[in-house]
Design a protein that fits this description.
By secondary structure, the chain is mainly alpha-helical. It has a two-stranded antiparallel ribbon with strand order 1-2. Helices cover 70% and strands 2% of the residues. The radius of gyration is 32 Å and the shape is elongated. Helix 14 (218-230) packs antiparallel against helix 15 and helix 30 packs antiparallel against helix 31. It is built from 33 helices and 2 strands.
Length: 581
């Protein structure tokens, strides 16, 4: 009876088809059975003989588009054109242009444009705007601009569509020219120009646009937050975040990610906990990928385990980015066992996933495991990149594998990789630690780059460790020009003079450090024990358990000395350099 009613009443059938692709709150079909619903609607549509009704046909085409079944909408249009008396109208072409643009069906899109011309709908505002937007999504800005110029009437949507296209391809000048021509500007146009300005680093223009906006929305604030974080101005970003009238998950993610990218893990973790406590937002993939680097930097393994449980609960472990971030977090927290397990459980790995574990093994002193994984990576068909080779060289460095490091450094050209200054720095450090000072010096001189402060400081410390005061003095003259505020260089050189009993030079170095404005920062590190974060601070003896700690440190120093790894410290120097707070 219901089927007969639908076949007899075209209006009822049209409403039924529309309901099949309506929002998730549809009373007829739920989110889980909407595909089955649209299939049933399509069978009814194909069965009836009322394809001369343009409104009915448009509803069926639009239903496919709304359900992201773009090829089905194009195929249906072709069938209607060939086997029926169907006459398309402006709504038909608007839906089809949208389908072609979203699915990047370039050939089909050009065919639709041809049909628009033949049927006389080129002058229709909605059709023309849809075609402009379609060509923008294709990346064919010449066609989009030509279509825009031929329009007799233009709307804010027409302008905005082309502005977005110019901004996306980096043609900011054309985007600005078009924006200035708009008779009226809405929030979408402002947001598009702000986003374009942010992406090219022009925060002054972005701020001007933001201040001119009458109706700022979540997108406006979030764009400015991302822009401020990109240039390192997290203070302004946080001020914008705090004064937002309303926030969505993207806003929280932007601010958390901004803190992480600007090396402020404590603030990122604090904001994440605030989001968890004060809002109903559930972390998504972007949140997880944003917060894990902060956890890794802070070494909060317990929080990392909790995040991992959230990942499993929300079934995000299949995401390659999430998996890679978990591997990186566990490795940087020193838990290479869990890092390896997550890595092995990943269904789809990318080069970054291999890099995360290789580097994790390297920084945790597991050099052989890092090199073994590197070989497995190649056997699996993954091509190493610059970051991979940096991890390999770091593994050789931490393991003292000089010859192995030299070999892989020379073989970088086999992977079509050009050594960057970071790779040279790793090699200089490796050679310096091995006592090959002359070879390290020759490598610095042969580099195609100007040696930076990091490389020279590394070489300076190698000279200090080997008590080569002449080389150390030569390097100090260079490094002091590059890093006048680096207190470590002065302290190392002063100690080297003191060991050679050159007290006058030691005093001069101390004065130079003072006049240069370099201040010695107190060394510290943190460790988590039973959910408590404890801090080691150099030189502090106020802890109530100092005597016990002092005895443990003395035993550690004796053990290190027996292994030949005391790094030139005396027992008292070593014990004074570390402290539990």
């Amino acid at each position: 009876m219901f089927r007969n009613a639908l076949e007899a009443n075209v209006n009822l059938l049209t409403k039924f088809i529309t309901a099949c692709s309506s929002s998730y709150s549809s009373s007829i079909f739920t989110a889980s059975n909407r595909p089955a619903g649209i299939q049933h609607a399509r069978r009814l549509f194909d069965h009836i003989q009322r394809h001369d009704d343009t409104f009915l046909c448009n509803s069926m085409i639009k239903s496919h588009v709304d359900l992201l079944q773009f090829p089905d909408s194009i195929t249906l249009y072709r069938e209607l054109k060939k086997g029926t008396v169907f006459y398309p109208d402006n709504f038909t072409f608007t839906s089809l242009a949208k389908a072609c643009g979203l699915s990047l069906l370039t050939f089909e899109g050009q065919q639709i444009h041809n049909h628009v011309g033949k049927t006389g709908f080129c002058s229709d505002l909605f059709v023309s705007t849809a075609l402009v937007d379609m060509y923008v999504k294709f990346g064919k800005l010449v066609f989009a601009k030509k279509m825009f110029d031929e329009m007799n009437h233009r709307s804010q949507v027409s302008f905005t569509a082309l502005i977005v296209g110019f901004a996306r391809c980096g043609d900011i000048c054309s985007a600005w020219n078009l924006f200035n021509q708009m008779p009226e500007r809405d929030a979408v146009a402002f947001n598009a120009m702000m986003d374009a300005s942010v992406k090219v680093g022009d925060m002054n223009s972005a701020r001007v646009l933001f201040n001119q906006m009458q109706d700022k929305n979540v997108v406006s604030y979030s764009t400015m937050i991302c822009g401020c974080c990109n240039i390192g101005d997290v203070t302004s970003a946080r001020e914008l975040f705090d004064c937002m009238p309303e926030r969505n998950l993207f806003s929280w993610n932007s601010m958390i990610s901004g803190y992480c990218r600007n090396k402020k893990p404590c603030e990122a973790l604090k904001l994440f906990r605030e989001m968890q406590s004060n809002t109903l937002f559930e972390p998504d993939e972007v949140t997880i990928v944003s917060i894990l680097p902060a956890i890794a930097d802070f070494g909060d393994l317990e929080l990392g385990n909790w995040i991992h449980r959230i990942v499993k609960k929300k079934r995000l472990e299949k995401s390659t980015k999430v998996g890679t971030s978990l591997v990186d977090m566990y490795a940087k927290c020193g838990d290479t066992m869990n890092a390896t397990r997550v890595f092995e459980e990943m269904e789809d790995k990318e080069t970054a996933s291999w890099n995360a574990l290789i580097n994790g093994f390297a920084v945790n002193g597991s050099s052989k495991e890092a090199l073994k994984l590197f070989m497995e990576m190649q056997n699996r068909g993954f091509k190493p990149n610059e970051i991979t080779m940096l991890g390999v060289l770091s593994a050789c460095n931490h393991g003292g594998l000089v010859e192995e490091g030299k070999r892989w450094f020379k073989r970088m050209d086999e992977y079509d990789l050009v050594p960057q200054i970071e790779h040279y720095g790793c090699m200089v450090d490796l050679l310096g630690r091995a006592g090959l000072l002359e070879e390290a010096e020759k490598l610095i001189e042969s580099m195609p780059y100007e040696a930076n402060g990091i490389i020279l400081s590394s070489y300076l410390f190698a000279c200090g460790y080997r008590k080569d005061i002449k080389r150390a003095e030569n390097v100090m003259k260079k490094v002091i020009k590059l890093e006048p505020f680096n207190d470590g260089n002065y302290v190392m050189m002063r100690n080297l003079y003191a060991e050679h009993r050159r007290w006058g030079d030691a005093d001069e170095m101390k004065k130079l450090m003072r006049t240069s404005g370099a201040k010695k920062e107190t060394g510290s590190s943190v460790i988590e024990i039973e959910s408590r974060t404890l801090e080691f601070v150099a030189g502090d003896k106020l802890h109530p358990n100092w005597e016990m700690i002092d005895r443990v440190l003395a035993q550690l120093w004796l053990h290190m000395k027996a292994q030949g790894t005391n790094f030139g410290y005396s027992s008292q120097q070593y014990r004074n350099s570390i402290y539990f707070q």
